[in-house]
Specification:
Rossmann fold; 34% helix; alpha/beta; single chain
Length: 181
């Protein structure tokens, strides 16, 4: 990442769409219940360290963040947000479950419905001076924002309602960390 992108982020007005930290191996249970983390894949120890580090990096780079941080209701996304930004700064938004659902078997119409709502949420212009952070899930390859690595960030520039959005940059956790040196 170069200094011009860092300058843009410091100016604010962007959406940082972040995939949660590394989760434990396995699958979410068929009887998944958002109230019970044991029915889900959860953050591994590495995932917890990644989340803490992510928050430290953004603070050290002086990238302004607007609160609340939005997350899907999965324990792994909530914990990622809480470790990076503080428990009091997190708001669960049930819509982000829909991104997780895109990896399942959906009709074309259902997939389009989800992607249309997703696009409308990423089009909303933000005030300068802060950036919005959404911590949720990766997408299937070639859909939405595509594959995102653990703690990867897609920097999105909202163009305004009905005008779409632009993907400005894709960053791994290592890309962010390299700016600290």
């Amino acid at each position: 990442m170069n200094s011009s992108l860092l300058d843009l982020l410091r100016g604010g007005g962007y959406i940082l769409y972040v995939r949660h930290g590394e989760a434990t191996v396995g699958v979410d249970q068929p009887y998944l219940n958002f109230q019970y983390c044991f029915t889900q894949r959860n953050l591994s120890e590495l995932g917890r360290r990644q989340a803490i580090y992510y928050g430290e990096i953004l603070r050290n780079l002086r990238i302004p963040i607007g609160y609340p941080i939005l997350t899907s209701p999965f324990c792994r996304t909530i914990e990622t947000a809480q470790l990076a930004f503080g428990r009091e700064n997190v708001q669960i938004d049930p819509f982000w479950i829909e991104i997780y659902r895109l990896s399942g078997y959906l009709s074309g119409g259902e997939q389009r419905r989800i992607l249309d709502i997703f696009r409308s949420r990423l089009e909303i212009k933000l005030p300068l001076g802060s950036n919005r952070v959404i911590i949720a899930h990766s997408f299937p390859d070639g859909i939405g924002l595509g594959q995102i690595p653990n703690m990867g960030t897609v920097v999105v520039n909202p163009r305004g309602q009905g005008n779409g959005f632009e993907i400005v940059h894709r960053l791994s956790l290592a890309d962010f960390a390299s700016l600290l040196s």
